[in-house]
Amino acid sequence: MLAVARAEPTQSPPEARVAVLPPRTILALDLGSRCGWAVLPRSGRIASGVSEFRPGRFEGAGMVFLRFERFLGDASEASGPFGVVVFEEVRAHAGTLAAQVYGGFLAHLTAWCERNAV
Prior knowledge:
Order of helices and strands: EEEHEH
CATH topology: Nucleotidyltransferase, domain 5
């Protein structure tokens, strides 16, 4: 006679799902007069939107960049200081004006990051 031993099925422990949160708040930007942005704070709750920085009818062109810098400061205060700022490096623009505007936003962004140790 042949005896067959039946093994009890073993249960694997349930897989633990671990959320990996960023060590620092991240700001992502699509630079331009109509600037797309997203913030990933340490809480993991993403906020995003679009901000307009076009000059008013009786404003100089520099007001655009002052508004942009105010936006950066306000966003940093609201979400906690940024540890990382990422943006698309555009190499080819539709025209000369677009290239100049992009360069202005990039210059003000990098200056703001330097001042704020980002």
